[in-house]
Amino acid sequence: MATGEAASVLGDPCAAAMAYALCDEDDAAASLLVDDLLDAGVPVEEICLDHLAPAARRLGELWDRDRLPFTEVALATARIQSILRRLPAGRGNPGAADGRGAIFAAVPGEQHTLGVMMAADLFRRGGWDVSLFIGLSHDELLARLSRDDRPVIGLSCSGDHSYPALRRLLAALAKARPDAQILLAGQILKQPDKVADLPAPVVPVCDMAGAEAEMARIGAMLAAATVARLGTARRKATSAA
After folding, report:
1. Residue 186 burial class via C-beta count within 10 angstroms: exposed 0-12, middle 13-18, buried 19 and up
2. What is the pTM for the complete model shown?
3. Where does the B12-binding domain start and stop, copy by copy (predicted)?
4. What are the phi and psi torsion angles at 7 (to 5°)?
5. Residue 28, helix vs strand vs coil
6. Which residues, at least 6 apart from 238, have a Cβ–Cβ distance to it below 8 Å?
7. Which of 8, 18, 122, 215 is the most buried (most CB within 10 A)?
8. What are the phi and psi torsion angles at 183 (to 5°)?
């Protein structure tokens, strides 16, 4: 294992290997690496969180520092999307029956979208009914969020360039979806003063573990509400009889 300065430059070896494979001339290089991990018994969640996500962050950092062209990052993004689509399915989607629904979206103008894509995929595997919106304008995204009654909205914002779009969207959602629980993820969380100045309350989630904890809390709350509604309905039916 690399130590000291070498480790700080090279980064995590798993992420480095996956990042290299995602940019390889061979279209199948990253897929073969993922297949090896699956054959070794590595769970899908670990492949996403410990291999694909760190590799995507590493490539994004290199792009931000102008050490990697956008074409390479776009190619890697397309390959990750392809890998996510063919990963083994999870436990299905029981969440649709008990109200565990969510909408994940990148704010308008956001270019760093791999994190929210992976989060959507992992929560679908965990039984949540999740829709994912990427690349929509403010009006398009607001229209879709406004007519969808799923109780959780997860937004991704990576920094200053998309912060104005985040503020505008949250101001609109405060009126259109005051009932929604809004989770916020992305690099913008490293600027707590800006998060505190947002026009609507949000629940910051810094990593997948935090997102899982918040979604579990919301899921438990929704399940309790469902039980309460069923109990009320039964009492009314009994009284009517």
Report:
1. buried
2. 0.73
3. 99-229
4. -65, -40
5. coil
6. none
7. 18
8. -100, 145
Q: Are 165 and 107 in contact (CB under 8 A)?
A: yes
Query: What are the tens digits of pLDDT across the range 69-98?
Result: 888 888 888 898 888 888 886 544 544 445
The residues spanned by each domain of the chain are 7-86, 94-228
Contacting residues for 232 by C-beta, under 8 A, at least 6 apart: none
Give the number of C-alpha atoms closer than 13 A to the C-alpha of residue 212, restricted to the C-beta side. Answer: 13
For 94-228, which CATH superfamily applies? Answer: Cobalamin-binding domain (3.40.50.280)
Chain centroid to CA 223: how far?
A: 22
For residue range 177-199, list pLDDT tens digits in order: 998 999 999 989 999 999 999 99
CA distance 168 to 108: 10
Residue 107 DSSP class: P
Nearest 5°: the CA angle 157, 159, 161 is: 100
Which tens digits make up the pLDDT trace of 31-69? 999 999 999 998 888 888 888 888 888 887 888 788 888
Distance CA(229)–CA(218), nearest Å, equals 16
Q: Which residue has the higher pLDDT, 72 or 141?
A: 141
CATH class of 7-86: mainly alpha
3-state secondary structure of 17: helix
Phi, psi at residue 203, to the nearest 5°? -105, 110
In the block, residue with structure tokens 């050490």: 67
